[in-house]
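Entry for the shared binder. Reason: the reviewer on the internal report wants the predicted structure included alongside the sequence.
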Amino acid sequence: MEQKIKQDLRIGENIRKLRKQKGLGQTDLVRILQIDGCDMTRECLVKIERCTQHIQASQLQAIRKALDTTYEALIDGYEV
């Protein structure tokens, strides 16, 4: 079973903020993730952004890659 990252409000908010900065809608990001092999639905992304669902380590890794950002930016909210 894959490790889930206990999420406070920041991770979901940071994903939403970075996604919007890149000019991507939720559907756009999900398509990128699916093309890259991450099995995620838009509904799942919505729940992660709203912090109603924990994010899996592989999902966080795929989102980091898709948004071309750092783990620090996703977890702590700042770019390094």
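Summary line for the report: The mean pLDDT is 90.
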